């Protein structure tokens, strides 16, 4: 069965290509060969080439494996961490409590 083609907007493709380039740069800074990363991540050289090229057909798990090998797995916790739009939408849909104004009660004293 043929693989389904994934279509992306140019901005999305640029983001993914940037991620791939950052992974490649991180690998080179660590002086890891492609063979080393492939062996440690349990992926083929072709798959690593696709990941570093920002190929959208690569499984997200492959990106995670490469991040792990490079010691960058903790960076995943920053993805979608600050969901500003989602928080605003959530706050808008919350019911607003309406209270009667406080009445001033005189205390005998």
Q: Could you name the ranges where pLDDT drops below 50 across 5 or more consecutive residues? A: none
Under the CATH scheme, which architecture would be assigned? Answer: Orthogonal Bundle
Class, according to the CATH hierarchy?
A: Mainly Alpha
SSE succession: HHHHH
Give the percentage of residues in beta strands: under 5%
- What is the number of helical segments per DSSP (H or I, 4+ residues)? 5
Average pLDDT: 89
CATH superfamily membership, which one?
lambda repressor-like DNA-binding domains
Give structural notes.
Helix content is 51%, strand content 0%. It has 109 residues and is mainly alpha-helical. It has a single domain (10-91), classed as 434 Repressor (Amino-terminal Domain) (Orthogonal Bundle), CATH 1.10.260.40. Helix 2 (34-41) crosses helix 4 (60-69). The chain is elongated.
